[in-house]
Amino acid sequence: MKLRRCSRKPAFPWFGMDIGGTLVKLVYFEPKDITEEEELEEVENLKSIRRYLTSNTAYGKTGVRDVHLELHNLTICGRTGNLHFIRFPTAAMHRFIQMGRDKHFSSLHTTLCATGGGAYKFENDFRTMADLELLKLDELDCLIQGLLYIDSVGFNDHPECYYFENPSDTQNCIKEPCCLDNLFPMLLVNIGSGVSILAVYTKDNYKRVTGTSLGGGTFLGLCCLLTGCETFEEALEMASKGDSTNVDKLVKDIYGGDYQRFGLQGSAVASSFGHMMSKEKRDSISKEDLARATLVTITNNIGSIARMCAVNEKIERVVFVGNFLRINTVSTKLLAYAMDFWSKGQLRALFLEHEGYFGAVGAFLDLLKSADDA
Amino acid sequence: MALCGGADRGSHSMDKSITLPPDEIFRNLENAKRFAIDIGGSLTKLAYYSTVQHQVAKVRSFDHSAKVSLQETDGDPLYEISVQEEITARLHFIKFENAYIETCLDFIKDHLVNTETKVIKATGGGAHKFKDLIEKKLKLKVDKEDEMTCLIKGCNFVLKNIPHEAFVYAKHADSEFRFQNTHPDIFPYMLINIGSGVSIVKVEAEDKFERIGGSSIGGGTFWGLGALLTKTKRFDELLQLASKGQHTNVDMLVKDIYGGAYGSLGLTGDLIASSFGKSATTDKEFSKEDMAKSLLHMISNDIGQLACLYAKLHNLTRVYFGGFFIRGHPVTMHTITYSINFFTKGEVQALFLRHEGYLGAIGAFLKGAEEDNPNQYSWEENYAGSSGLMSVSPELNPVQRARSGTFDMLEMDRLERQLVNLPLLQDATSYIPDTVDLTEDALAREYWLYCFEEALDGVVKRAIASQKDQPEAVERAEKFRQKYRHKLQTLRHQPFAYGSLTVRSLLDTREHCLNEFNFPDPYSKIKQKENDMALKYYLKVVKSVEELSWEQRQFTLAKGLLAGNVFDWGAKAVSDVLESDPEFGFEQAKQQLQERPWLVDAYNQWIERLKGPPHKCALFFVDNSGIDIILGVFPFIRELLIRGTEVVLASNSGPALNDVTNSELQILTERIAAMDPVIHAALREDRLALVQNGSSSPCLDLSRLDKVLATVIRERGTDLVIIEGMGRAIHTNYYAMLSCESLKLAVIKNSWLAERLGGKIFSVVFKYEVPSKAQEQH
């Protein structure tokens, strides 16, 4: 993707923000080509923001900079610098707005581009608490533009995209980076708190096919209720140690083996949480098993809906994004397996390294575009 | 008598004392053969086939040469009425809790005398668990059948044989259940069985089906996850909790993220964005009710979404839901319906089945009965022996809900004939026989239930009178009264018990109950007497008509037909008069008739049509015996025959009220032919045919007619259909659209109904319809 030539550069700082149901995603462009002249002119609070963001990897108790995702030496709008990826819980939104007020963000004359539902929900808070106007952007537009941009610039000379080789063979299933000549048409499955499924035909032509409320929020929500855990990391950690077959009823638990009449393997899940109908089994189950079962249930369900949509829309490439997939190889591998197995090799699951940040990147790109339009 | 044999044979851990009289549960067990059993997680469904011996009234042309009069009537009786024992086939299905299984097996063992039976077909998840017990108790070999195959077989069977099997559920509507008329072609359809998991099956033909998909998120997920979250053990309790909860406390809605709707995508603020999303971000306690509700929504929506994706992929619009997750639970039917509506934007309706719980047992039974070819026959739900759909709203009827803990029954009678559509229906798929759906029309329901209850004394009296020679008839008639009264009371509370409540179903239920207590034809003697009397006037009527001018004659014949139709024991206003004044004459009846213009008056169009070329063949659905058929119908069709139109008289196969049956009509026609050369010639030349319609109802369902009749209609190129009488032309078929010309004729002998139609008692309906050219080609 070619980036537009910017006739007028927007004022620093350059941000893009995606305020989701659970997480706020923030991308920040750190210019590395600042001239001495600029340095002198740079106002103090702008400097302090830059220093604060780039010298820390954690902000407050819950903010995190995903250092491993940082993109180096990116040239955008004639400026070269690094793109930083930061996230914090939506629950901390008000503290973030307060910080914006304390740092006199409004004096910087920058446009704050925001997408996601929170751009609407918190718009008024930004205005009244921090005297900031948001430029609200559609989250699906941003998602697609951001995704296409990151895919085009690559991940620090590596491909952004990857897939799993031998997805149906757990022993030999390996992550393989890949470059796609053409992404279109693709089925884009964005797994955040909930799930949106889009059919994307060109960079400007897409439709939302469907969505499901069984998403990352459901996984974490159920895990919190079932195991008492508090964070996504904790839930995933538990899930990685558990065994879902203690919780789920498999085909072989009902039929003693495969259900041959319908070609169902004995190892297929017949009823998620089906064993939990029995009191004895409920009493003997571990939290790890419950976490794993929750993860497998949600993941398989998303896989199943995505697969049906792909078949209905006649699209073979299924791209999974969203923060549910962060540090979640159990789910990525399971999705790769499900796509491959149930479609008999017809469908391919693709993943992207910057999972949940594309909306924020899309908002960031719009900042540059809006300056261009001006 | 208690259905509990446990005491004699030592105590069994699973015994439960059952105090229902056994002859009302395992009926006709003495004649039972072929058993099938479907054992689910909590309910057992037993199926067996029995032969039922019951009395039928037969008429036989009186043998004059024998000179032996068995009748006490004065003069020469017209024909002989005899009551014969007839054996018919019946299917019994009984549903009870698994806890009763041992008691029931013991009971069956004690009453089973048929030694031919060697195997019992079994299906369902619990079949293997109880295999040894069944083999030990019944000495029958358990033969396991595939669950899904049985389910589909059962589903095909009920869809084909029970007209109001499927319904749409509407929680907030006046009537919760909206029954769908079964289309003659039930295939293809999609069945979504929600057991512990979900199976999605596409059914394309009787033996052609395919599991096209499924999901592991099903009833087991609701139950298992629900039990973990709420510490509530039982499935029903979980549903109870869910019905009281607020899912918005647990789920993250679109408005929780957006502050309102996501307008550009058309997602409303109340839409669930993330199930259980709030429990991930809020640190607080959630109530059991709220979590159960959220879980219910999550699972129902998910199943609904998958169902829609599969329906779209396979291009299927008929989507039936079943399995223990559904099984009549209003909460799940509501959430599934909602979900299907949402995902298909109303294009697909979620359909549920009245006998959903029986499908497996029916299918297993059919698998075992293949040599009897049960699918070759048509079957009919016996209202007298079937429990009907219980009220499923616990808040509406908590007592009834508990009933599921005892016994539920379904009986299907085998019909002697295969039933098919009238080939002349304009659109068989949209044909609805009944004019008023009493399930939806509360006012009409009130009236008719009252009417039938009021008439009950008279029916009982009539029944006893018809069997004066049998002293125990009084007792039987009393049992009939109790049974039918009980049915009426049930219908008052649960009008949906047997599908859409209609005047027809009320009449049919009464006939079924009468048959049940061996009153096969309470009107046989009255019919005989009236036929006899009317025959004496036949020639006089024909002669008087012949003297008239053409125009006058047509009018007199039409009026005569209508006047004849006044003689109807089924109408209270008339039966009162007939009871008190048997000489109520034909001429008087004509005077009773409304003057033209009639309430519905297409006579002018009809007469214009008669001036044109004759019809090729007229099909006449006749109504009452006596004056109606002899002095009304015969002179009318005589004129048609003279015009060169062939006539097919379609009459009931079995008795209902004073309606003329086919066997009676055979005799009457012979007698008329003996007097009237026109009829005689027509019979001889086969221009007049008498064919039975396959029904024993005072009403008429044109989608369930004797196959032979359909063939005759087709072969003769029928281009005119005449439907006569309140039961056939008003209560049913008033709005039926035919692909040829039709006459619907009746006298409204009920002031309430007449008023509803905007007229008075004895108002006349003379409806003549001609399909438009485009429809004709169709």
From TrEMBL, chain A:
Enzyme Commission identifier(s): 2.7.1.33
GO cellular component: cytosol; nucleus
Primary localisation category: cytoplasm
Location in or out of the cell: Cytoplasm
Keyword field: ATP-binding, Coenzyme A biosynthesis, Cytoplasm, Kinase, Nucleotide-binding, Phosphoprotein, Transferase
Record flagged with keyword ATP-binding: yes
Example GO BP: coenzyme A biosynthetic process
Catalytic reaction annotation: (R)-pantothenate + ATP = (R)-4'-phosphopantothenate + ADP + H(+)
Domain of life according to the entry: Eukaryota
GO function terms (MF aspect): ATP binding; pantothenate kinase activity
The protein's annotated pathway: Cofactor biosynthesis; coenzyme A biosynthesis; CoA from (R)-pantothenate: step 1/5
Top enzyme class: transferase
A Pfam short name: Fumble
PANTHER family registered for this protein in UniProt: PANTOTHENATE KINASE, PANTOTHENATE KINASE 1
Description of how the protein assembles with itself and partners: Homodimer.
Family membership noted in the UniProt record: Belongs to the type II pantothenate kinase family.
Name of this chain's protein: pantothenate kinase
Organism: Carassius auratus (Goldfish)
Gene name per UniProt: LOC113113681
From TrEMBL, chain B:
Localization terms from the record: Cytoplasm
Domain Damage-control phosphatase ARMT1-like metal-binding span(s) in chain numbering: 452-759
Cofactor: Mn(2+); Ni(2+)
A Pfam match: Fumble
GO molecular function: ATP binding; hydrolase activity; metal ion binding; pantothenate kinase activity
Keywords: Acetylation, ATP-binding, Coenzyme A biosynthesis, Cytoplasm, Hydrolase, Manganese, Metal-binding, Nickel, Nitration, Nucleotide-binding, Phosphoprotein
Gene Ontology BP, a term: coenzyme A biosynthetic process
Predominant location category: cytoplasm
Residue intervals passing through the bilayer: none
GO cellular component, one term: cytosol
Family that this chain belongs to: In the N-terminal section; belongs to the type II pantothenate kinase family. Belongs to the type II pantothenate kinase family.
NCBIfam families: panK_eukar
Annotated protein name in UniProt: 4'-phosphopantetheine phosphatase
Originating species: Carassius auratus
Lineage, broadest ranks: Eukaryota, Metazoa, Chordata, Craniata, Vertebrata
